[in-house]
Amino acid sequence: MNIENYISSGIIEAYVLDQLTEQERHEVQQMAEQHQEVRIAIIEAEDTLIAFAQKGSITPPVSSKNKLFQDLGIEIQQPPVEEKKEVEESLKANTSTSEIRPAVKERSLYQYISAAASIIAILGIVLSFYYRGQWLETEDRLFSLISQNETLAQQYNIVKNQADQYASNLDILRQPGIENVLMDGLDISPDAEAVVHWNKNTNEVYLNAKKMPYNEDAYQYQLWAIVDGKPVDMGVFDVSGDMTGLLKMKSINKPSAFAVTLEPRGGSANPTMDQMYVIGQI
Amino acid sequence: MAKKPSALEYLYDNYSAALFGVIIRIVKSEEVAQEVLHDIFMKVWNNFSAYDAGKGRLYTWLVNISRNASIDKIRSKEIKKTLKTDLVSDNVHTIDYANSHTLSTDGIGLEKVLDQLPEELRFVIDQMYFKGYTQTEIAEEFNIPLGTVKTRTRTAMRELRALLL
Prior knowledge:
The structure holds two protein chains of two kinds. Chain A has three domains: 53 residues, no CATH class; 89 residues, no CATH class; 104 residues, Sandwich (Immunoglobulin-like). Chain A has seven helices and eight strands. In chain A, helix 3 packs across helix 4 and helix 6 runs antiparallel to helix 7. The longest helix of chain A is centred in the middle third of the chain and has 70 residues. By secondary structure, chain B is an all-alpha fold. Chain B contains nine helices and no strands. In chain B, helix 1 crosses helix 3, helix 2 packs across helix 3 and helix 8 crosses helix 9. The radius of gyration of chain B is 17 Å and the shape is globular. Chain B starts with a helix and ends with a helix. At the A-B interface, helix 2, helix 4, helix 5 and helix 7 of A face helix 1, helix 2, helix 3, helix 6 and helix 9 of B.
């Protein structure tokens, strides 16, 4: 599957807007695990959505906050913005009335104190903005670390599953009598490739289809063996997700070649020749 | 995140304005928007474990549950009918609303950004983001090929990204 086409198909946006079915979500997550481009596209779309919501911010009335905290039985720790302003204004009012006081000495003392207080207050406000910025940045980094951690855990699981699959593949390939038949891609899909492991002693057939393109739901791949010049059905299979494991197909005696075609779901009685993806002679 | 009372305050102070902006543009009534916002924070607080970091960032999760709750609200209230007959004047109403009721001037900025999008892209964003239609539903409802809806979604998000970031 072409990653650029996949990303520009609009599915990433639908994913970020939470408009996919559980299965489709899962597919996008799998693609994201396998392709960094998809991960980046998701993060970019999320950033856009966040910036979009941020840009449209409308502060709800203070009464909303009060009601919520009351209903949850939680005390508000920071006074709401309005109250802060009132406090500041009453502070200002206090300092201005003090200036009217007549005594010269007292006035200058009050002036010093109020000047000092203003400077401290301004410094405090500047610092609080600075720390708030830093705090938000830290919070963002924390969330991105949590999601990275999650991704790593998922990747670990994938690698572990693959290792288990490889071990069981090795057991199959070590059996005596195994012949490996490489099937190369045809014009329809030159990059495709698949390998049949045919056991000439037991006639068992295993298929490695890791390098086949994903098929759509309406279709399925079908493996054929050529025996005495005629195609014999060897079973259908899907290519999706991780294809490390070998597929057990039908057994066959004395094949001369193997081929894979794409057929309507469920398979066909005869191969559709112009939908042949790979073929290989023994 | 530990469920300390101050965590709720942190969540509320940091996200309520963005979420309220999302909700009010969908439900188009300050009263209903307050109700939806309240319900969302109650749910998030009582059931924080519903958040799964693997499914996306906290912020996008909150935005999406706000959108979904708001869309459910208008659909359940049959406001939908009247909205459909008069899409244009409703949009105008939203903008007026933002102008007259907003506490921060930021709220109007979003409409200005949206106005910069070509009509067909803005339409897709309206239907998906504010009305909650899926790409398939838009294609069927408005007789646009699904492929076109999908590319427009992609283009719209890229243009928004360029305008916003």
